[in-house]
Amino acid sequence: MSTTKKVQRNMRLSSTLFRSLLLFTCAVIAFLGITLSAIYYFSYERSAEEELSALAQDAALHLDQTAKADKVLMLQQQFSGEMRYTLIDPEGEVLFDSHGAGGTAENHANRPEVQEAYKSGHASLKRYSDTLQTDTIYAAVKLNDGSVIRLAETRHSLIAFLSGLIVPVLLALSVAVVLTLLLSRRLTRNVMKPIDALNFSKPLDNDIYDEMKPLLKRIDEQQDQLRQQNKELALAENMRREFSSNVSHEMKTPLQVISGYAELMTNDLVPGGDSKKVATLIYDEAQAMRKLIDDVLVISRLDEANEMAEGERLDLQQLTLKAKERLESFASKQGVQLCVAGTSAYIYGNETLATEMVYNLIENAIKYNHPSGRVTVETSIEHDCSVVRVTDTGVGIPEDLHDKIFERFYCVDKSRSRETGGTGLGLAIVKHAALYHQGEIAIKSMPGEGTTFTLTFPLVQDGAKADNSP
Ligand code: ADP
């Protein structure tokens, strides 16, 4: 089986800021550099073209006013310098070239600007030289005698122009790196200042960026949850400790009785006629202890299992009939009449626990009854629920104790409970087991008027499994 491990990256706010700012600055420098250079280059080029055309027209005007024989001489004298002047006769022969030897140059008749000037009187165009990475602007004007005067100006192409910018741009970038580094450090310090000062023990009391408030709210909620959980844990721990001390306390009484009588017997202090009575007492106490241990085991198991691990479809009526069978002799001993009525009502659950619930309720109804009293157990389906109702004509329970009786080890009348073999855990088990079966228990009782306990569970259809079964 392969495990995916999350790799934790080292992240620094200053580095992140630095990277973003640097990227942004470089992009801005590059964009502005290229755009401004291109704008400058093209606007300069346009005006250069216009200027050259004007110069060509001017030269043509002068040449037209000059006699044919003096034209070359005039060009040599007046138009020498940086600008290239070429005088081409109507056949394309070069009569004069300020940047070359006139007459030796090749025929210029097929040069586009010359051809265009022959045809329409004037021309201006630009040619790009790949090898020299240069742009040359030409302006040609046809003279009255049919020859053409051509002016040419050569300068760097856009690419060459831009490559000339590399050094200044690199310089600007180095300055940008340093400035960005300083700026990102400063920004980080400023951003971090309120974060460093955060008080996490009271997250919502901090004066902090709005963007961080949801995070602090989550921290606050989690701290609340933790506090709650700690409280619940402490409560559970407390209950567990109280339960253990109650268990050992409850165990002591029967143990003391047993060891007391055993000691009497060991020292031959029990008269022969009483030995059976003493043995019965020892037996009863041992039974009480066994019952206590059984109940403690059931309740401990219920404490461990919050959810039903596995269950089966159970008929409350069948469980009731079985419990009745087991309790019949106890009922007749108490002089209590025990009746079971009703229909099949199915629940989904654990048979041992479900039987224990019904058994405990019926046992109590007999125990806390009057001689010649009556206990009625009724199973039914009500409002889509499976219900078992145990009603007795016994002593009843005062209303203020209706919650208390479900607490562990709580007995309304301790001596009566002991007399009848009660542990004080019976109803605690019933309530816990009812919850385990997604059910609930209700009580209706008044002192002297008997008691009714009602257990209600989610209904399981005959032959079907409960929808809400785990
Ligand atoms: P116990 O082992 O003492 O019977 P339970 O948890 O079963 O413990 O019951 C708690 C107390 O509730 C009992 O001590 C008893 O006083 C009271 N009680 C329970 N069932 C009945 C009932 N049907 N009628 C009157 N009192 C009852």
Short description:
The chain is an alpha+beta fold. The protein contains 11 helices and 12 strands.
Protein architecture, described:
The chain is rod-shaped, with a radius of gyration of 55 Å. Strand 3 (122-129) and strand 4 (134-142) form a beta hairpin. Residues 465-470 have low confidence and may be disordered. Helix content is 52%, strand content 17%. Helix 6 (213-266) packs antiparallel against helix 7 (275-304), helix 7 packs parallel to helix 11 (426-436) and helix 8 (316-334) runs parallel beside helix 9. It has 470 residues and is an alpha+beta fold. A five-stranded antiparallel β-sheet has the order 2-1-5-4-3. A five-stranded mixed β-sheet has the order 7-9-10-12-11, covered by helices on one side. A two-stranded antiparallel ribbon has the order 6-8. The protein has eleven helices and twelve strands. It has helices at residues 13-64, 71-78, 112-120, 158-163, 166-196, 213-266, 275-304, 316-334, 351-367, 414-419, 426-436, and strands spanning 84-88, 94-97, 122-129, 134-142, 148-156, 312-315, 337-342, 346-349, 374-382, 385-392, 440-445, 451-458. The chain binds adenosine-5'-diphosphate (ADP).
